[in-house]
Amino acid sequence: MANFHELILGFHNFKEEYLLKEKEFFSRLVHGQSPKTLVIACCDSRVDPAILLGGRPGDLFVVRSIASIVPPVEKAGEHDAVIAAVEYGVKHLDVHNIIVMGHSNCGGIYGLLHPEKIRSERFISGWVSLASPVLEELEHEDPNEPAPVRCRRCEEGAILMSIDNLLSYDWVKERVDAGSLALHALYYDMATGSLNVWNAEIEDFEPTRVEDL
Ligand SMILES: [Zn+2]
User: Fold this and answer.
1) 163 alpha carbon to ligand 1 midpoint, in Å?
2) Measured between alpha carbons, how far is 200 from 194 in angstroms, rounded to an integer?
């Protein structure tokens, strides 16, 4: 899909295959949305959450940001698109779940690990620096960690940081404490084709398996 016209063709294929064949389903969607899940995913073209998680139109309220980062309340500006979308999902759509989904080979985390590569890019460097505490903690724990391990732990750590940051908003924390909203951390490893979920009991990500569902 390199060309614009291929995307237009893509829409017409979608119309033929879905819109026209499932008229009742799509006519219901015209009147409103009631997704139960909000997904915060990276902007990366390889990690579209609706495709990876098998979502249909209306299933997922999706927010995408570089490295799936959510800013903490004290750093979210008045014009922050990420947190505005989260606020809409939580307060207006009343979602039951928020998933923060990070992934392997993440360019945003690469930028965090190699700040010299994005030094002249004001908005990118400012955004990924929100995850600096993750890197600082890892450096403190083990200054000599091999680069691939550091990268992986940063990618995973940034997901957990975003979960923590979500809890810095009182309207998120209140719902989590009341049990009406659950937060989930997912990590998609595109090299192995594995979707890993955070397990708080073992304090690590572990592969999801159909047998466990
Ligand atoms: Zn990414």
Assistant:
1) 16
2) 19
CA distance 14 to 11: 5
Q: What secondary structure does DSSP assign to 12-44, as a single string?
A: HHHIIIIITTSHHHHHHHHT----SEEEEE---
Cβ-based neighbour number of residue 115 at 10 Å? 13
Ligand 1 centroid to Cα of residue 119, in Å, is: 18
Q: 101 CA to middle of ligand 1, Å?
A: 9
Instruction: Using the structure block, give the residue that is written with the tokens 């750590």.
Output: 157
How far, in Å, from the CA of 102 to the mean position of ligand 1? 7
**pLDDT, block means (10 residues), the chain with 213 residues:** 90 96 96 97 97 97 98 95 98 98 98 96 97 96 94 98 98 98 98 96 95 86
- How many domains does one find in the chain? 2
Same domain, 1 and 48: no
Helix crossing, 147-166 with 132-141: angle to 10°? 130
Which CATH number belongs to the domain containing residue 141 in this structure?
Answer: 3.40.1050.10
CA–CA distance, 197 with 192 (Å, rounded to integer): 15
Q: How far is the CA of 155 from the centre of ligand 1 (A)?
A: 8
For residue 8, give its domain range: 1-32
Residue type, 57: P
pTM: predicted TM-score of the whole model, two decimal places: 0.96
